[in-house]
Amino acid sequence: MILLDIDYVTIKEKPVIRLFGREQGSEDDKIIIALDKSFKPYIYVIPSDLDLCREQLQSLGLDNIEEIKRKDLGRDLNVFKVTLKHPQDVPRLRDDIWGLSEVKEIREHDIPFYRRYLIDKGIFPMSEIKIKGDLIKSSSSVFSSSKNTQLMEIKNPPKHVESDFPELKILSFDIEVRNPDGMPNAEKDEIIMIGIAGNMGLDKVISTKGEDHQFVEKAANEKEILEKFVDTIKNYQPDLLVGYNSDNFDFPYIKDRAKLLGVKMDLGVDGSNLKFLRRGFANSASIKGIIHVDLYLVMRRYMHLDRYTLERVYLELFGEQKLDLPGDKLWKYWDAEGESLEKLFYYAREDVIATYEIGEKILPLNLELSRIVGQPLFDLSRMTTGQQVEWFLIRKAHEFGEIAPNKPSHTQYSIRRGKSVEGGYVKEPEKGLHENIVQFDFRSLYPSIIISKNVSPDTLTDGEDLKVYLAPESGYKFLKEPRGFIPSVIGQVLKERSRLKYKMRDSDDLLEKKMLNVQQDALKRLANTMYGVYGYSRFRWYCLECAEAITAWGRDYIKKTMEEAKMFGFHSIYADTDGFYATYNPEYQN
DNA sequence: CAGAAACGGGG
DNA sequence: GTGTACGTTTCTG
């Protein structure tokens, strides 16, 4: 099955992992919920004195302690893997463990249980997994909402299966509200339309007006609009549901109105309700088993614009202006009926189709990133690129037998935030119109420097070792041997990327070419982000020295290249970080 | 000028 | 939910 979503529930005080997937069969698609009762949470404890520490841990009632060998930034280390009974034991016992005199550090104590599962089992969301188990009847904590939902209990660990892009059922939605006084207020302003569009010919607007209209599904009242919305999703059974600012507008609004009108929002494939997860300052709307992606958040990361309205993003992506009505006047179009109302219907439809098209355009990259980073698409679509890299590295660390560094404390974070790194070399452009220009740029300059100079927190040294790379200006030194953790990972990423690029070049299949292009693009983005995160204040592998050394080498390389080019008659007129423009005049040559 | 508050998107 | 967090711009004292 394709792994779409994952979480855990507690059954009889024990954690049970739930894998949500879809099996694409010949006649009928099946929704699968697979339970794994065999996985237990654990943390790493770095002891001062092994035996004393073990005794102290035991005195806290912790009896599942295993002494194992791991690496900490390349250094061999004996640590305790302490297995607990329930994920919530971790925050409960963390302070007590931390308080023990023989405990030097606790590691990997803040990795959500389901993420731990994905990493440890080596399985990837949006990829194929093989599961073996027994079919079971629905229980009180997990019950099927429809006939084609299959519940099973996993017997053997799930296995990753190499697979292509999954074909997914995607649905987009968008609501319209009648708000005559300022911004919509869910206590009084009714929902007048819900637009829904999908990749299987679905495209409609549910509304209390618009009888016998070609794309409008007439509802008797607002309550029925919401019921029809719920029914449409249940019948269609999308893998993905996309909206635009739906985390903070559409879904919260729907939830409030549904509560007011007594409509059940039991959209989850396990029959559970739409719910909101507090993720810092923002909320995210979550439906069990259906991946809700808020495209607004995704687009803000994907492109650099002054504004990120649906209209602006659509124009940028497709070069087409879409119908835009003034938000504060929509209620007038609604009240006026006739042609105005007709316009409003078209506006609602265009909005939901535009949302769908943006989703269609941007989801492949995010799907691929989800498969590479190895975290659920729901989570990934809400992560900054820095967080995406971090989770990718946490998975790699596990593969490499490394224990991940902890997140910075509040104080560490404040200190880091006050620091900045000198950027790339910039030569202000020479005024005037230049002709006969040549362009020069380095391919993946920063990733290449990280690899060739072995720039990594675990290779940074102040020792007297002669076998080091010496960074310009700052004088930071990096061991030539052994290969650092992050250089190794970037090396893997770039190697895989070049393999895909060759494969892409050799392919005759247009669809395959497109797929491979998305994959290599995802890897490129990941590699390029890895430099930036050395200076990212919340990064576990934060390393200011590394960030400074990289840009210093970068400045050194470009300046030297410009000097070299000058000898051949190239006069540079503008330079920025990893490339420059030059005019060519052979007479300058000497 | 520093620190607090507001903003983004949505209708 | 192994909770608790964004980056930037504008206002306020």
The strand order across the widest sheet is 15-14-13-12-16-19
> What characterizes the major β-sheet?
6 strands, mixed
The end-to-end span amounts to 66 Å
User: What is the CATH topology assignment of the largest domain?
Assistant: Nucleotidyltransferase, domain 5
Main CATH class of the largest domain: Alpha Beta
Helix content: 25-40%
Label the CATH architecture of the largest domain: 2-Layer Sandwich
> Strand percentage, roughly?
15-25%
The count of helical stretches stands at: 16
Question: What is the CA-atom radius of gyration, in angstroms?
Answer: 28 Å
Word description of this protein:
This protein has 590 residues and is of the alpha+beta class. It has 16 helices and 26 strands. The protein has four domains: 79 residues, OB fold (Dihydrolipoamide Acetyltransferase, E2P) (Beta Barrel), CATH 2.40.50; 71 residues, DNA Polymerase, Chain A, domain 1; 204 residues, Nucleotidyltransferase, domain 5 (2-Layer Sandwich), CATH 3.30.420.10; 181 residues, Palm domain of DNA polymerase (Alpha-Beta Complex), CATH 3.90.1600.10. β25 and β26 form a beta hairpin. The longest helix has 36 residues. The radius of gyration is 28 Å and the shape is globular.
